[in-house]
Each structure stands twice: as structure tokens, then as C-alpha cells.
Amino acid sequence: MATQKLYAGAKLRELRTRMGLTQKDFAAKLGVSLPYLNQMENNNRPVSTTVVLALVQQFGFDVTELAQGDSERLVSDMREALADPVFSDATPPLADLRLTASNAPALARAFLELHRAYRQTHERLASLDEALGREGAQLRPSPWEEVRDFFHYCDNYIDAVDRAAEKFAGLALEHGDMRTGTQIRLERNGVTVRYARVGPLRHFDPDTRTLTLSALAAPATQTFQMLLQVALLHQDQLLEATLDLARFQSEEARSIAKIGLANYFAGAALMPYTAFLTEAQEVRHDLELLATRFGASLEQVAHRLSTLQRPQARGIPFFFVRVDQAGTITKRHSATRLQFARFGGACPLWNVHRAFETPGRFLRQLAETPDGVRYVSLARDVSKPGGHYGAPVRRYAIALGCEVAHAAQLVYADGQDLSQDKAFEPIGISCRICERTKCHQRSVPPLERRLTISPHHRDTLPYEVN
Q1: Short-list 382, 377, 369, 379, CA closest to 410
Q2: What is d(CA 132, CA 354) in angstroms, rounded to the nearest whole number?
Q3: Whose CB has fewer CB within 10 Å in the chain, the N or C terminal residue?
Q4: DSSP 3-state assignment of 267?
Q5: Residues 287, 264: Cα–Cα separation, whole Å
Q6: Quick one: DSSP state of residue 194?
Q7: What is the DSSP code (8-state) at residue 457?
Q8: C-alpha to C-alpha distance for 440 and 20, rounded to whole angstroms
Q9: What is the pLDDT of residue 1?
Q10: Are the beta carbons of 180 and 169 closer than 8 angstroms?
Q11: Which strand (E) or helix (H) includes residue 246?
Q12: pLDDT at position 129
């Protein structure tokens, strides 16, 4: 198999700008000519091995950043946006989208922002009566989408928050386990922790400084909620500084993001980066062993594995997703080349949907996307009972996976024949951008293909994809 050439012009320009260097000075430090650097920055030439070594020696640069999935994410997001019927036949070829994502990422994000604004306008017009009757109705992105994109393009790793959580974990674990240590740290700061059989999952009264947790919640959930409260009370300046950098367009988005960052802190404290990464590698990413070791839930462990992207100490690049019974994606992140649909559900051929049929069991799947990349995927239901008879049960399924190149580091890949092409099931991202011509589960035609419809012939689909 031929070695894939590395084009990283945007990353090189970003590093040069951050260091305050001219192209001439930057080229001199890298040991290349000025025209050669110019060609690399414009993606007319790949980054050579000599330049990669110079980046490490001269700047201490983490070269894994050159291969981060920003471009793939942008390409996937643009393809999905262009699947909107408003674009009709004006869809650019995939090669043009890749050039835009790698050479002009700011332009790509501006396009996505413009399309998001268009969708917002379209949705408001579809419910005109409601919009006109609401005071202060304004055109702006959905706060949830804005926050989701913030974490999406941060690669789901927030370094300052992660390191602060790891430091707190070291202090809390001096008292034994994380649950006990966290409660002691809260009480030392004047917070009383109590448990109640009725009421919400977590409630904090700032006047009495009383934190009330649901006694019906799982122990891992209770510990997580205590850590979340620690973040809100004692890491407020850090959270606010991070939010200032994000520049959200609305107070709603900022408030949602603050809770998201507090959740991030809680997960990072419950599973401290260095200790968690070391343990994950030792047990070959066995979710159940990690859950027991760190007093966390399976979902918390799977989510944490997908965030291990600290420069110079990266874990396996995982994708993580959570779906509900309708197939709607409620959480998503990918440090791999696999990117999820921003709108709608996931591919029905993916094993995450079958997890609802086999509660309490892990499902394994070898999968291949239309671009030929192969993955090991693990799925399981994570139903959340209400805690008492008659309480509603929230049903979700999660999937965690990585490219087959990392299969030897996964206990879940043991016994699977990775050498057989037929062992890999074909999956996609979204029917509108999936290029497969033969798929028995296709719901709508692909955007970039012509169709043949014959009144004299009917197969699984009422049309043929050319």
C-alpha cells in the first residue's frame, strides 16, 4: 500500500503566525528554500520528512497535530450541507471540497455558518405564526448547535480544563477514593452534601451552600455530579476564561457551554488523563475493567476514551456516539476520519442500532466506509432507569470504535478475522452523501449520482444509482 502524502499547509501557516515569523525566517529554521515553503503552505507540495524533523527539533512541535482530522470534519460537514436541495445541481466535486478544507478552512467554516443561518431562517418561516408572535425573535444559530460545534472543532479536548481536573483528582485521591475525597473537599469549602429520594438529580442552594443529590442515582452518577459542582464552584474563573475565547453569539450558548465544560471537568477528574491512559493501555481498553477501576459508568468511560488527544500523550483516536431509539444522534465525537451526520440519524447498517435488541451485551462489528477506511466498532445499550417503579426509562445506545490499524490494542478485536474483506460490513454517514450504489437500506438517493427509473423494472430500490 502506498504511503499517503501529508498536506498540512494550514497547520504550517498557523504555526508560523503563532511564532511571529516571516516566511523567509520560517524557511531558514526548517532548512528549506522560500519557494518550497510557499508551495507547502499552499498545499502544492506535501510536507517532507526533513520538514517534520525540523518542526520537532526547532519548535518542539507535536507532529501528530499535522494529521488531525479538522479537514476531514470540514469536508464531511460541507458535503452534508451541500446535500440541502437548495443547492440543486451546483454541488462542487469532492476534490474541490478537500482543497477548500485544507487550503482555506476559515472559508469553509464561514460557508457552514452561512448555511446554518439559512436553515434557521427556513425553519422560522416554516413556523411563521409562532415566530411573529414571539417578542425579540432574532436570526441566530441554535445554541445547542453552536456549543456542539465548539467541542467538535476543539477535537473534544480542552487542555487547560483537563489539566486542572487532573490536579484536583490528585488532591481528592489523598483521601482514598474519588467519591470520598470529592465530598471531603466540598465540605472543607463549606458545602454540605446530602441525599434525597425525591427531587432532581442534583440541586445546589447557594444561600445555604447545600448540595442535594438523588439517592436513587447510581454511585458513579452521584460522584460525577459532585465533581461537576466542584467545577462550577471552584473552577469558575477557568471556565469563564475558556468561554471568553470561544466567543459564543448568545448568552444561552455560553450558559450551555459552561455546563458542558463543567461536565468535561467532572469526567476528566473522575478519570485523570495520565492514570486513565496508562490503565486503558494496560487492560487493552476493556470498558468494564476501566469502569470498575475508576468508579465510572460505561458511557463515561467510552466518552473519556474519545477525549484522549493531549499533545505528545495521545491515546488511540476513537470515535464515540450516543443515539436514542429513534436513531437520532445525541452525542458525537470523532478523532478518526469517520465523521457523523450533523443532522438526522446515523447509518442504519451500523451496529449501534442493534444494541437496543440485545440489552446488556457488547456487540462487535468490523465496518468499512465508502472511502475504504476500515474500523472496529463496539456498541452497547446504556439504558438509564428512573430509580423507582413507574419511573420512565431513558434508553440510549453508545458506539465506540477506531481504525483497524489499532485493533491489536483492543481486547474487543480478539478473535476477529481482519484479513477477510467479507468480514467488513459496509456502512456510511448519511444517505444523501453516501456513494454506495447498492444499499438495501438506502432512504434517499445520493446527491452526486444520476438515477435511472424504469417502469418495467423494480429491485430493492425504485431506482438505480448510476
Answers
A1: 377
A2: 43
A3: N
A4: helix
A5: 19
A6: E
A7: -
A8: 54
A9: 40
A10: no
A11: helix 236-246
A12: 47
Three-state SS at 168: helix
First-to-last C-alpha distance (Å) of the chain: 29
At 263, the amino acid letter reads N
Alpha carbon separation from 196 to 30, 213, 222, 230 (Å, rounded):
62, 6, 12, 19
Chain-centroid distance of CA 44 in Å reads 30
CA 165 and chain centroid, separation: 20
Which residue stretches of 127-235 are H helix? 128-132, 143-153, 159-172, 178-188, 219-234
Residue pair 349/379 in contact (Cβ under 8 Å)? The answer is no
Query: Got the DSSP string for 276-318?
Result: HHHHHHHTTS-HHHHHHHHT--HHHHHHHHTT---TTS-----
**Where on the phi/psi map is residue 137: left (φ > 0), alpha (ψ -120 to 50), or beta?**
beta
**Grouped pLDDT means (10 residues each) for the chain, 466 residues:** 63 82 89 87 81 82 63 78 72 80 82 81 57 49 81 85 96 92 94 92 95 93 96 95 89 94 96 97 97 95 94 91 88 81 73 91 93 93 83 91 95 93 88 78 76 81 79
CA-to-CA distance for 185 and 24, rounded, in angstroms?
53
Instruction: Give the pLDDT of residue 345.
Output: 63
- Bridge-based pairing of strands 329-334 and 319-324 is antiparallel
| Cβ contact 152:72 at 8 Å | no
Q: Give me the sheet containing 374-381, strands edge to edge.
A: 329-334, 319-324, 396-403, 374-381, 363-368, 425-426
Q: How many residues does the chain have?
A: 466
Is 401:362 a contact under the CB 8 Å cutoff? no
Distance CA 115, CA 432 (A): 16
Could you give the C-alpha distances from 410 to 187, 315, 338, 406, in angstroms and in order?
Answer: 40, 12, 18, 7
Cβ distance 73 to 152 under 8 Å?
yes
> Alpha-carbon distance 87 to 105, whole Å?
20
Record the cell numbers describing residue 196, joined without a space.
434525597
CA distance 223 to 213: 10
Q: For residue 240, what is its C-alpha cell?
A: 469563564
| CB 239 within 8 Å of CB 191 | no
97: left (phi over 0), alpha (psi -120 to 50) or beta: alpha
Position 460: which residue type?
T
